Amino acid sequence: MKYVVVAVGLVWFVSLTFFLNFVVAETQQSKITNMTSNPFVHYAIPTLNPNLLYTRILSPIEQVQAGMPAKDVKCATGLILVIKVEDGSPACVKPDTAQKLVGRGWAKEPVPYVTLDDQSECKGTEVPSSEFKKRIFPVLMMPTNSTATVCVTYKFESGWQSYQNKDLYPRGILDTCCFISMGWNTNHSVSSNKFEVLANPSLFNMTSTYNGSKISVIYKIHAKSDSKGFYDTSVPFDGCLSYPLAVGYDASEVSATKFHADFSIPCFNTIEDVYSVKIVSGMTYKEIQWGGDYP
Prior knowledge:
Blueprint: H1 2-33, E1 40-45, E2 49-57, H2 60-65, E3 80-83, E4 90-93, H3 95-103, E5 125-126, E6 136-142, E7 146-156, E8 173-175, E9 183-185, E10 189-191, E11 195-200, E12 203-205, E13 214-223, E14 229-231, E15 236-237, E16 241-242, E17 245-247, E18 272-281, E19 284-289
Parallel strand pairs: 6-17
Antiparallel strand pairs: 1-2, 3-4, 5-18, 6-19, 7-13, 7-18, 8-12, 9-10, 11-13, 14-17, 15-16
């Protein structure tokens, strides 16, 4: 009997120690997180491994208490943000639940949301679209045998449920890796095999999106050693257009005469449009003047 009591006591002590370490560590890390607008909290569990940090997202109430406006609260993947009619407080719920809450008058229309990943890399220099009236167009530039990081934010122009051309996206999946293609527009688009492009996320489930939802995709673009040249297409922007790209040249060598002046890319009545393009690293751009009417 004595051994049973000792064993039970030992189990209770270990469990209590684990719990206290968890709470203390998380509380300490929460205080740090609350000084910023970052919705993620990082914490350690000393009993298991004091050097290993775990991550979770703050609850809507915790984010508001940390100074985040209710309309800017971030929800975990698969959940969307709704605002309670009575007091304006935020809540993260499943899409079908959101519709029920709106129908009952409990919540306002769902807030367009960003699919939540830790987008810490999505910061950089925003590339302008173009000024067609002034015939000014940006050209992206990068060295050969180098890797550039670009963040492209896509905005959904329709909710998935009301979108008419679902056949364009089998199983509701957006294949983001195929949006970037370095090539030439002559009589037809010709893609180059002198680049490697990685996208994160490379696949995105759109079945829970609403009109105005956004997703940011980090692209790693590697230009191989033999990639020097001028390319009519690269990173997409503004619907069916794409930035031209110069690889291995100084800015003084880049001019309108190096391109075919036709930067359209194949597109249909797609559900997504480019909201912004930011250069994180490894790339610059130059705005150049074009002759003629386009562009």
